[in-house]
Amino acid sequence: MERVPTTTTGRELPHPDRAEIRLETVLHALADPVRLRIAHSLDAFGEGAGQGAACSDVELPVSPSTATHHYRVLREAGVINQCYRGTAKINCLRRADLDALFPGLLDAVLRAAARQLKR
Amino acid sequence: MERVPTTTTGRELPHPDRAEIRLETVLHALADPVRLRIAHSLDAFGEGAGQGAACSDVELPVSPSTATHHYRVLREAGVINQCYRGTAKINCLRRADLDALFPGLLDAVLRAAARQLKR
DNA sequence: CGGCTAGTACGGTAACCGCCGTACTACGAT
DNA sequence: ATCGTAGTACGGCGGTTACCGTACTAGCCG
With contact defined as beta carbons under 8 Å apart, do B51 and B92 qualify? Predict the structure, then answer.
């Protein structure tokens, strides 16, 4: 059966709301190679079918506990949104918020990241 | 007399060339409030008359030695160009290089910074 | 139930960062 | 030559960061 466990788990994760997102914090979050890669992967995944990707969908060159750390940094900076679905944690970019606050920034960064990969 | 001391001083400062500029490093450089302010100020100054501004033209809430540190981070990241003119050190954004490598990024960051200031 | 998978919290370590003061150099002006 | 101004190099200090391993919880499946 299609047991889609929509937004299970009581554990709510703290997210900054739009007005609290600071440019310096966003830039700092994206300035790390691992986190930049996460953002880039989420962008790629997000464009696909149902938006969002689990942490385990993104391959990273660090240990799971370090990955958790990086996801938290991104979430607390306001770059990504995280929610639990079953045992998985689904991540997606906060495009709407970022675009509203800093028009063009996210796209510029993601395109720059993509471009730098092909070099 | 107009003793314009064009590019005096033998001391040459090391700059990365275009191909060496890394996105993560640029983002890291811009992720600090003081350095973001420097970039923003250079943008404002640069648009004016003769391009570039001396370090002392940009007011910063840190000591001179710390300011030196921040300028160096920006230069080594490839965000600014520095050269001596007389006793002053002239700084300007490396627009052409950054725009070529990461189109739209610098403008997005600077506009985001400007926008965040008016809040 | 037991076991699997996904992710976490904790604690520790080594590196880095932002900041400063002090002592110094480089240039221009007097 | 002397002084003042612009910026620097150095060393130190305290806070943050990236990383890991280990031990743990939450949900799913058989």
Answer: yes
Residues in chain A: 119
Does the domain at A2-110 match CATH 1.10.10.10? Answer given as: yes
Per residue in B73-101, pLDDT (tens digit) is 999 999 999 999 999 999 999 999 999 99
- pLDDT computed for residue B46 by the predictor: 77
How many Cβ atoms are within 10 Å of A14's Cβ, its own excluded? 8
Q: Which residue of B lies nearest to A22 if distances are taken between CA atoms?
A: B116
What whole-number distance in Å separates Cα of residue A70 and Cα of residue A41?
14
Using a CB-CB distance cutoff of 8 angstroms, which residues of chain A are in contact with residue B116? 22-23, 101
**CA B33 to CA A24: how far, in whole Å?**
6
Amino acid identity, position B117:
L
Å separating the CA of residue A21 from the C1' of nucleotide D14? 27
Displacement of CA A118 from its chain's centroid (Å): 22
Three-state DSSP class for A85? Answer: strand
Find the Cα–Cα–Cα–Cα dihedral A81, A86, A88, A92, rounded to 10°.
-20
